[in-house]
Each structure stands twice: as structure tokens, then as C-alpha cells.
Amino acid sequence: MSICGNFDLSFPMFFADSNGLNIYEDIARKCGLNIRDTKIIADKYKIE
User: Fold this and answer.
1) What is the pLDDT of residues 7-37, one digit of tens each?
2) DSSP letters along 1-48, please?
3) Domain boundaries, the chain
4) What is the pTM of this model?
């Protein structure tokens, strides 16, 4: 996971796989955080 900056009180987050995203979404909902947008982008490069 990687968290980048503060753009309009938004925190873009990047996950290596969908499992990390699912874990974060579960934690965020339990903590009352608002997830405004989720984008899934196909991997162009394999993470080593």
C-alpha cells in the first residue's frame, strides 16, 4: 500500500493487489471513513 499527499482532503491510495484494497475498505467502513471513488487499473508491470 502507498498513500500519497493531501489533494482536496483526498488521499489516493495504491494497493499491490485486490486483497489489500478489500482489507482497507473493510477497515475504512468500520471507522466511518468515506471512500468516494475506487479505480481498478490493470497491472502493466509485475511488482517484484
Assistant:
1) 566 677 788 788 888 998 899 889 888 887 8
2) -EE---BTTB--EE-SSHHHHHHHHHHHHHTT-----------SS---
3) 1-37
4) 0.59
